[in-house]
């Protein structure tokens, strides 16, 4: 198991936690939490794999990934419901997830011969489309589409920096860590400072 796999599996767990926490906000049962957890963790990666022709898609026959999703849902279900700063925890886990899935999606795309520009796009899709589908299923306006939210924009910026550092000869492992930290930091700062994209 290499660093990319570790990052992707960590992202799977974090996003599954995010999905399960979202299910709690909508008063779903444990099955609903499992569905949202799985969709949040694998929706973006599945769309990426379909677009670039990876067969089977990333989660098929992967028992580690399935165990991570089940584990995340069980942990969330066992934690007391009155978690302090609940919305903040959901936000932070989501920020970590998009950071990890952006770099993981880029690396998986590069491994399968996708060029640099589209690899960054696949990284953005990997990071954001699982949450998009989960929000649609739970009848919520997706973060990706909220007015002015720096969500996919943060992933795009981090992905571009990742590719530039890679082409500059920076170690891939260091580049991965820098990119994840950068995406998470910008996402959190943009929320705290209410930085927004201009309206059309």
H and E order: HHHHHHH
Number of helices: 7
| Beta-strand content | under 5%
Count of all domains: 1
User: What fraction, in percent, of the residue positions are helical?
Assistant: over 70%
Give the averaged pLDDT, no decimals. 88
Pick out the low-confidence regions. none
SS elements, strand count: 0
Describe the main β-sheet briefly. Answer: none
- What kind of assembly state do the chains in view correspond to? single chain
Summary tags:
0% strand, globular, single chain, 200 residues
In short:
The chain has 200 residues and is an all-alpha fold. The chain is built from seven helices and no strands.
Report on this structure.
The protein is mostly helical. The protein has one domain (3-192). The chain is 74% helix and 0% strand. It has seven helices and no strands. The protein has helices at residues 3-25, 30-52, 63-78, 86-111, 116-137, 152-167, 172-192. The longest helix is centred in the middle third of the chain and has 26 residues, at 86-111. The termini are far apart. The mean pLDDT is 88.
